[in-house]
Design a protein that fits this description.
Elements lengths: L2 H6 L3 H23 L2 H18 L9 H23 L8 H12 L7 H11 L4 H12 L4 H8 L3 H21 L10
Helix pairs in contact: 2-3, 2-4, 2-7, 3-4, 4-8, 5-6, 7-9, 8-9
Length: 186
């Protein structure tokens, strides 16, 4: 029996295991979409609350990871829509990103390293939202092209092409020295 079915039966240990397994990937997806540390943390927590509430609706047609990341993605976009309605159109666009970068750089390093998060954000800053999304879903979530296709609503080949183009942009960015680190994810 998978973890989500165990959660549906009220198994809190299964929820804890699922959280430990996916929290970093969910957080990084939310962070890459919202560019806001606080929103990303809220979305991460809300994702697992939703899993607990909706576990009985989970169908085994896809993977647990795909279901989790789809929930997180939808929550992030809902948050962004709410924020855009609440935010004055003339406000400074870079404030959220700057705040996120300051928060990330202030965190301690460790297995879920803030420096790693900062590096990750730094790498993604020149990519489009859709490119960031496919990179996160493929690299951090480890989802298949079929799962990414279901989440994004685009064909597998289109998602794969977007991913390859994004990787090429990242490679060029690294070669040009646009990032603070010379680490390579490619």
């Amino acid at each position: 029996m998978n973890l989500i079915h165990r959660i549906a039966k009220g198994d809190r240990e299964a929820l804890s295991k699922l959280y430990d397994q996916y929290k970093t990937g969910i957080y990084r997806l939310a962070l890459s979409l919202t560019k806001d540390v606080y929103q990303a943390e809220d979305i991460t927590q809300e994702t697992f609350l939703r899993v607990q509430e909706k576990a009985e609706t989970y169908r085994r047609s896809g993977s647990e990871a795909a279901w989790l990341f789809a929930i997180a993605r939808n929550l992030a976009y809902d948050s962004l829509r709410r924020q855009s309605r609440e935010t004055d159109i003339n406000s400074e666009e870079g404030d959220g990103v700057l705040r996120a970068l300051e928060e990330i750089s202030a965190r301690e390093s460790g297995p879920d390293s803030a420096a790693g998060d900062l590096y990750f954000l730094d790498l993604l800053k020149n990519l489009s939202e859709r490119e960031q999304e496919v990179i996160c879903l493929r690299i951090h979530a480890g989802l298949s092209w079929a799962e990414i296709s279901r989440i994004t609503g685009e064909k597998k080949d289109a998602a794969r092409k977007r991913y390859v183009r994004a990787l090429l942009k990242l490679r060029n960015q690294l070669e040009d020295g646009d990032c603070r680190s010379e680490r390579s994810i490619l």
